[in-house]
UniProtKB/TrEMBL annotation:
One Pfam family here: MFS_1
Recorded topology in the membrane: Multi-pass membrane protein
Major facilitator superfamily (MFS) profile domain ranges (all copies): 27-466
CDD domains reported for this sequence: MFS_MMR_MDR_like (cd17321)
Record bears the keyword Nucleus: no
Gene: qacA_1
Official protein name in the record: Antiseptic resistance protein
Listed transmembrane segments: 26-49, 69-85, 92-112, 118-139, 151-173, 179-202, 214-232, 244-260, 281-305, 311-332, 344-364, 370-393, 414-435, 441-462
Protein's UniProt keywords contain Protease: no
InterPro entries linked to this entry: MFS (IPR011701), MFS_dom (IPR020846), MFS_trans_sf (IPR036259)
Length: 472
């Protein structure tokens, strides 16, 4: 994999000079901001969905597609981003991703129809796919040792927090300005990041012999797209309709062809040998359950609180604030404890705690009370999330040699996005066609089952790394 360094400070440890420490902080801010916009936009849209469907029409189907059009291209193309960065340079790819994301955001904000918005969301996801791996590569090439672990921990906490604060920011904009501003807000951090890149003096290292598996990327994208289309449209058309089973079968065949291709292609975008490592494949199975549940719960709660409980978009966004606070307060501390005791305990207890929090949503009734019916769930789920995120990331990345941490992170990010993609595609089936109180309760049960499955998977599958005598 290629590296990105400042030629004046290449690979020097942080303790050598204060100047290097300043450069590292600069790099970390660039990495955080670039990734933050991609993750933020993945969730900021949730609270805007009722307003979007009210203005552009389409009901729950439009809401599903607005979310999944983004996740399809993000999840599929994030795998090929590492190869593109090697071939063309990480800083160049990061700039292109930022500009593309900004242009797509402007197009979404100006969307005249639901169809136009959905297509623009797909382009936005494609641009976002190139932000996350390039951002992490900036960290791995400019930090070493314990400083790198700490930087990755900060990056993980900040990008995960973006997924939680998105509904709050979106709610304020929907209520006081317009849902369209929920997408325009991206332009500010994008502009700041581009200026920091221009002033940072970074120089790309490119690999001229790098190979990009565009065929694999296409197979993955269209394979996921076909299956997701069938899952979203099935409640309206039924499984017997050729418009459902044809794209479902074709999508499955294309995705299978993608996996088979990764076994033979010279430069795979999904290195299947990574899954021979126990903590890597187990961690990604747990990721599938946990992030599928997070995506489902994040969308259902903010939409139901508006459409079912009658809250404003701002109040619906504020509902998840306790989760954000708990993440900020405890994520880094839990990461340190996980490094000392190993990730297995935290990856087991954290998701199960979130599952219990999801079950608390079953107390929501026709006589709605946020303080007694929703807040306890948010607190319990926030505690579970703080216990889970940093140990999950360290378990997966720590299982793979450092020189492959970039592709390992890209695979894990892709798994998380695809898990959310499938969960949202199944939304209408899960809630029974309408997000009423019964549908909300069904979603809470499914969320709990997925979370608990993630905890059980971690308990039986994750192994704590052996500790040296000095660490014992």
């Amino acid at each position: 994999m290629g590296t990105v360094t400042d030629e004046h400070h290449t690979q020097a440890p942080a303790s050598v000079t204060g100047r290097m420490a300043t450069t590292q902080r600069y790099v970390l801010w660039i990495a955080v901001l670039a990734s933050f916009v991609a993750f933020l936009d993945g969730t900021i849209v949730n609270v805007a969905l009722p307003a979007i469907s009210d203005e552009l029409g389409g009901g729950i189907t439009t809401q599903q597609w607005v979310v999944d059009a983004y996740l399809i291209t993000l999840g599929a193309l994030i795998l090929v981003a590492g190869s593109v960065s090697d071939a063309y340079g990480r800083v160049l790819v990061l700039r292109i991703g930022l500009i593309g994301f900004g242009v797509a955001s402007l197009a979404i904000a100006a969307a005249p129809t639901a169809e136009f918005l959905i297509v623009a969301r797909g382009f936005q996801g494609a641009a976002g796919a190139f932000l996350v791996p390039s951002s992490l590569a900036l960290i791995t090439s400019n930090f070493t040792g314990s400083a790198q672990s700490r930087a990755i921990g900060i990056w993980t906490a900040m990008t995960t927090s973006a997924m939680i604060v998105g509904p709050l920011i979106g709610g304020i904009l929907v209520d006081f300005v317009s849902w369209r501003w929920a997408f325009l807000i991206n332009v500010v951090p994008i502009g700041v990041t581009l200026m920091m890149l221009a002033r940072g003096g970074f120089h790309d290292t490119r690999h001229p012999d790098s190979s990009i598996d565009w065929i694999g990327a296409a197979l993955c994208t269209f394979g996921l797209g076909g299956m997701v289309y069938a899952l979203i449209e099935q409640p309206d058309r039924g499984w017997g309709s050729p418009a459902i089973w044809v794209p479902l079968v074709l999508g499955a065949v294309l995705f299978l062809a993608f996996v088979l291709r990764q076994r033979t292609v010279r430069h795979p975008i999904l290195p299947l040998d990574l899954f021979r490592v126990r903590n890597f494949w187990t961690g990604n199975v747990a990721t599938t359950f946990i992030y599928g549940a997070l995506a489902l719960n994040g969308l259902v709660v903010v939409v139901y609180l508006q459409e079912g409980a009658g809250l404003s978009a701002t109040l619906a966004g504020l509902a998840s604030l306790p989760m954000t606070i708990l993440m900020i307060l405890f994520s880094s501390r839990v990461g340190a404890l996980s490094g000392r005791w190993g990730p297995r305990f935290f990856m087991t207890v954290g998701p199960i705690t979130m599952g219990i929090g999801a079950l608390l949503l079953l107390t929501v009734g026709t006589d709605f009370s946020y303080w007694w019916q929703v807040l306890p769930s948010m607190i319990v789920m926030g505690a579970g999330l703080a216990l889970t995120v940093a140990p999950l990331t360290s378990a997966i990345l720590g299982a793979i040699e450092p020189e492959r941490s970039g592709i390992a992170s890209a695979v894990n990010n892709a798994v998380a996005r695809v898990a959310g993609l499938i969960a949202i595609a199944l939304l209408a089936t899960i809630v029974g066609g309408a997000l009423d109180l019964d549908g909300f309760h069904r979603s809470a049960i499914v969320t709990a089952v997925l979370m608990i499955a993630g905890g059980i998977t971690s308990f039986f599958g994750i192994r704590n790394p052996e500790r040296s005598p000095d660490e014992a």
